[in-house]
Amino acid sequence: MATLREIRGRIGGVKSTEKITKAMKMVAAAKLRRAQGALLSARPYSRKLSELMNHLTSGMDLDENPLLMERPVKGVAIIVVSADRGFCGAFNSNIIKATVQHIQNNYADSYALGRVSLFTVGKKSNDYFAKRNYPVAGNYSGVFHDLQFTTAKNLAAEVVNGYLKGKFDRVDVIYNEFKSVIQQRLVVDRFLPIHKDSLKAKEPERKQGKYAKHVEVQYIYEPSKTSIIEALIPKYLEFQLWRILLESNAAGEGARMAAMDNASENASELISALSLQYNKARQAAITKELLEVVSGAEALNSIS
Question: What pTM does this model have?
Answer without folding.
Answer: 0.83
